[in-house]
Task: inverse folding
């Protein structure tokens, strides 16, 4: 029966009575079993998913089903789903059960999406390989010797292996777009504040955004339409009205900028560079004005992001002390040793590294030199980006410097791994939306993404243009 690669296909098959929702869920469950080696799901909600499928199938027959009826999704294991464990891939939360729904979960279920399980990720969403998880690494379904990317690696792997139709991820510095790029999928990070963060386990609160990983733009747009919008539980969620994102039209913009420095970057794979140039030339042939734009702060992105993200992480993770939240040690003798031992036992190496670095950059003697400076750099990055966007509504750049890494090859050098985020963190620092489109296939057999960024709350234009891009340049179909 599988694979279905869009909600539209599923709906059509249901309408033609060739498919019913319970059997669709059955076939996903069977496929999850067959591809258990990928470790994409940390937990599967089989019975629940089947129960919902029956109910939603009835609603579809009665014409009362929601917008997402027929969509079977994976939920990243750092988003709260009431009554279910949410571990953030950490020993410290391994047995923690959500007592409420994240706003996105309420909205997804409210429109009749079926959540089939929780997908693996890096511990507290910190990483780019999915190897820092307490549940073990997730494998890339396109080559099981490679990583699926991270931190939403389980989400991308689950979709790419047809274990569910779409998945929800979170993106602090690229964690939706980089795995989408590594697995040949669409990954959308909305504008900061477009989607409520209520119920997302916080990593870097001034960067975190929830978004979809899908096969196509229509499904990404529809999911965004459902999950976006104001939320009384998150004061950083914008009050700006949401548009009908799923009503896609021809793109309006005719001027596009591509960033020169990323293309000239010595770390960029030659074939990815060539494909970027092919696409730029193709767009020109189609009548677009595509101009280079200089972004002189490229080399400041990684240091600025990691100073700020680690600072925010060190503060956000203070609550996992064995008393308020998180794993509690068995071997404490007093209050202090509860804290020290619980945290030492509960967190993995990368998370500890970030908490310590983050605490350091926030400490009285170093605040101005690191955190304060990073804030100023962030302002420069944002201003320069806004300046480019004032003349060009869309900006093109690669998603990642290269294709998926081999499993276990990035382990020893954290800075080398941080540098791999160079193209994705730009949008997080500037707070703007960005999407990775599966528009490249490397001669090494692995896919890669092309990234498009646009101005804050310009998701409609981003989605319209993305649909056009996929139709025009899709090399993976
Ligand atoms: N790889 C980046 C980091 O480790 C991004 C992670 C994310 O977006 N959650 O911080």
Result:
């Amino acid at each position: 029966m599988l694979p279905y690669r869009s909600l539209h296909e599923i709906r059509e098959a249901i309408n033609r009575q060739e498919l019913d929702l319970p059997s669709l869920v059955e076939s996903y469950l069977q496929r999850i079993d067959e591809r258990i080696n990928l470790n994409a799901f940390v937990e599967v909600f089989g019975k629940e998913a089947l129960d919902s499928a029956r109910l939603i199938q009835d609603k579809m027959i009665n014409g009362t089903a929601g917008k997402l009826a027929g969509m079977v999704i994976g939920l990243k294991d750092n988003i709260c789903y009431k009554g279910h464990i949410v571990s953030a891939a950490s020993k410290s939360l391994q047995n923690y059960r959500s007592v409420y729904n994240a706003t996105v979960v309420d909205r997804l279920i409210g429109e009749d999406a079926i959540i089939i399980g929780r997908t693996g990720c890096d511990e507290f969403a910190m990483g780019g390989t999915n190897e820092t998880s307490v549940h073990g690494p997730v494998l890339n379904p396109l080559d099981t010797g490679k990583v699926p990317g991270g931190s939403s690696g389980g989400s991308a792997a689950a979709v790419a292996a047809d274990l569910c139709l779409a998945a929800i991820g979170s993106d602090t510095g690229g964690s939706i777009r980089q795995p989408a790029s590594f697995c040949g999928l669409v990954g959308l990070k909305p504008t900061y504040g477009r989607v409520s963060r209520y119920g997302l386990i916080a990593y870097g609160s001034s960067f975190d955004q929830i978004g979809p990983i899908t096969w196509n733009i229509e499904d990404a747009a529809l999911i965004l339409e459902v999950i976006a919008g104001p939320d009384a539980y998150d004061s950083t969620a914008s009050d700006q009205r949401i548009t009908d994102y799923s009503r896609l039209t021809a793109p309006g913009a005719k001027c596009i900028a591509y960033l020169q420095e990323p293309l000239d970057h010595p770390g960029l794979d030659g074939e990815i560079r060539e494909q970027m140039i092919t696409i730029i030339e193709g767009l020109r042939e189609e009548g677009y004005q595509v101009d280079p734009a200089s972004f002189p702060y490229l080399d400041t992105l990684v240091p600025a992001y990691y100073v700020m993200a680690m600072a925010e992480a060190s503060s956000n993770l203070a609550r996992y002390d064995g008393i308020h939240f998180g794993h509690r040690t068995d071997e404490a003798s007093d209050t202090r040793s509860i804290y020290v031992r619980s945290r030492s036992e509960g967190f993995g190496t990368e998370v500890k590294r970030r908490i310590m670095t983050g605490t350091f950059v926030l400490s009285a003697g170093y605040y101005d030199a690191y955190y304060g400076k990073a804030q100023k750099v962030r302002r420069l990055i944002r201003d320069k980006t806004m300046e480019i966007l004032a003349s060009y509504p869309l900006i093109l750049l690669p998603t990642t410097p290269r294709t998926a890494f081999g499993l276990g090859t990035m382990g020893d050098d954290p800075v080398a791994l941080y540098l791999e985020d160079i193209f994705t963190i730009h949008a997080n620092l500037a707070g703007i939306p960005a999407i990775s489109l599966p528009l490249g296939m490397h001669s090494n057999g692995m896919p890669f993404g092309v990234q498009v960024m646009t101005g804050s709350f310009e998701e409609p234009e981003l989605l319209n243009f993305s649909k056009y891009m996929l139709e025009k340049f899709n090399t993976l179909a």
User: Anything to note?
Assistant: The longest helix spans residues 368-391. The pocket of glutamine is lined by residues 125-128, 151, 171-175, 203, 309, 421 (CB under 6 Å). The CA atoms of residues 73 and 164 lie 5 Å apart. Residues 7-227 form a domain with the Amidase signature (AS) enzymes fold (CATH 3.90.1300.10).
